[in-house]
Amino acid sequence: MRDEERDLAGPWRPALGALSGLLAGFGALATAELAAAAVRPQAGPVVAVGGAAIDATPAAVKDWAIRHFGTSDKLVLQVGIVIVLALLAVGLGVLAVRSRRAGAAGILLFGIVGAVAAVGRPDSTNLADALPAALGAVAGALLLYVLVGRLRVVRRERGSVGGRPAAATGGTEGFDRRGFVLTAAAAAAASAAAGAVGRSLTAASGKDAVASRARVALPRPASPARAVPARAGLRVAGISPFITGNTDFYRVDTALVVPKVDATTWRLRVHGRGVPRPVVHSYDDLLRRELIERDITLTCVSNEVGGPYVGNARWIGVRLADLLAECGVRPPSRGGPADQLVARSTDGMTLGTPVEEVMDGRDAMLALGMNGEPLPFEHGFPVRMLVPGLYGYVSACKWIQDIELTTFDSYDPYWVKRGWARKAPIKTESRIDTPKPFARPRTGTVMVAGVAWAQHRGIDKVEVRIDDGPWQEAHLAAEDSRDTWRQWSFPWQATVGGHTLTVRATDRTGRLQTERRTGTIPDGASGRHSVVVTVE
Fold first, then answer.
1. pTM, whole model, 2 decimals?
2. Half-sphere exposure of 485 toward its Cβ, with a 13 Å CA cutoff?
């Protein structure tokens, strides 16, 4: 018997090549995920490439993604990366039918891209971060080479009969269907198992951090928050609750994998210009200090007029100004050489905060707790920073591990490098929570209600306008503090037809919310929120 091999031919060639590519890509990602569980989850190629994509994305595009996808923007990005990789894998599979080496080389090339992205991340500390992408690429290349090898056509000649050619006496031609199906099935099963094991190990890798959080018992604060005034929360259906629950609190950051930091090993270093006594604090060090408890409203700079990225919570933590003063730090107004505090997180994020605002007497803190419990991992456990009155990108560093005193002239943190302003006090804003846009209320009394905020200045007045009519003052709920939002309501005598409802606020400095519309870049959106309704 003699076998003669030649290139695959026929209508099934591209389809089977594409399938081989998909299986090879699946195997590569599964192997990389398993390897990342052994190295660190952030070293996985999808996460590493996704992080690099976020860093390279223009600020306007990032803002668009947050606006349209909200807190699901990271999931959308990762799904998009997987889809692109799948399409590339299909293309490489078709290419491999013509040249197995070229197809395998293509997968190796993408492995190199993933490895470079992993070691280039700000939180990468050694070359081991390149291993997941490298191992995944090798596994994928080998799998593609083997699968396409099963698609080679084999002509088997069984000899000749009476001088006649074999083709006339039952010679056969075809590819190793059984071998291909068995190899493909085994590859799919092994890849699925590797991915499942990798995900399981990744989930288990944070068990020490989870256990450390479970053991935290927040001490009673030396300076507790005052009780929320009974009339701070209005009983109006559809209005945002005065205190935002932890699970409902907005989350906007660049971390594709939420860091899970073990509080027992966590350390915070304070150092830099004008710090004569640098110090390193542990989590227990902070717990033993005098703690303050405050209700503070946070706002994301990506929040559009009327947007959802604002929330109010009760925070407990260490007063940041006291911590800095113990290190010998002085604000610029008292001759201190540093005017910028750069906070660094465990995932490599950097935020820049004016030292003057941190030390001017406001309740800037290193927060340990949120709404009566240790910080959730999504919101910065074990420690995050917050400064009332400043947008989050210049004040609310989650998973903080380093504070460096420097100057605005000598260092630009992450968002400033991408076109955002160095300093960003929160603007005076208000929002209509109810009725919702395009609602169809009945005639009669319709309660228009919402929230207004101007952190560290406070809200003095809220007014509502119906269509082009006069501005009418709304009822303000009781104020908790000038660092929290205030609820408001306005009983509107609704008449049949379409109407536009608009709201504006005035803060305690007399500053009226501007009607001039601007986008979120570079220092927060401005304008007045309005909704259109049809009264029936």
1. 0.86
2. 28
How many CB atoms within 10 Å of residue 236?
16
- Residue 323 · residue 384 · CB < 8 Å: no
Structural contact between residues 71 and 48, judged by C-beta atoms closer than 8 angstroms: no
The kind and range of the H/E element at 533 are strand 530-535
What value, to the nearest 5°, has the Cα angle with vertex 375 and ends 52 and 348?
25
Handedness of CA 34, 36, 41, 44 (dihedral sign): negative
Question: Can you read off the two tokens belonging to residue 532?
Answer: 């259109």
Query: What string of pLDDT tens digits covers the 536 residues of the chain?
Result: 344 444 444 567 788 999 999 999 999 999 999 999 999 999 999 999 999 988 888 888 888 888 888 778 888 888 998 999 999 999 999 999 989 999 999 999 999 999 999 999 988 888 999 999 999 999 999 999 999 988 875 555 555 444 444 444 444 455 677 888 899 999 999 999 999 999 888 888 889 999 999 999 999 999 999 999 999 999 999 999 999 999 999 999 999 999 999 999 999 999 999 999 999 999 999 999 999 999 999 999 999 999 999 999 999 999 999 999 999 999 999 999 999 999 999 999 999 999 999 999 999 999 999 999 999 999 999 999 999 999 999 999 999 999 999 999 999 999 999 999 999 999 999 999 999 999 999 999 999 999 999 999 999 999 999 999 999 999 999 999 999 999 999 999 999 999 999 999 999 999 999 999 999 999 999 999 999 999 99
400 beta partners? 345
User: Could you tell me which residues are beta bridge partners of residue 269?
Assistant: 280, 402
Alpha-carbon distance of 482 to 458, in angstroms, equals: 4
Contact call for residues 28 and 93 (beta carbons, < 8 A): no
What is the distance between the alpha carbons of residues 284 and 218, in angstroms, rounded to a whole number? 11
Contact between residue 448 and residue 492 where contact means Cβ atoms under 8 Å apart: yes
3-state secondary structure 76-143: HHHHHHHHHHHHHHHHHHHHHHHCHHHHHHHHHHHHHHHHHHHHCCCCCCCHHHHHHHHHHHHHHHHH
For residue 247, is it left (φ>0), alpha (ψ between -120 and 50) or beta?
alpha
Cα angle for residues 329, 330, 332 (degrees, 5° grid): 135
- As a whole number of angstroms, the distance between CA 275 and CA 326 comes to 9
First to last CA, the chain: 87
Is the distance from CB of 397 to CB of 351 less than 8 angstroms? yes
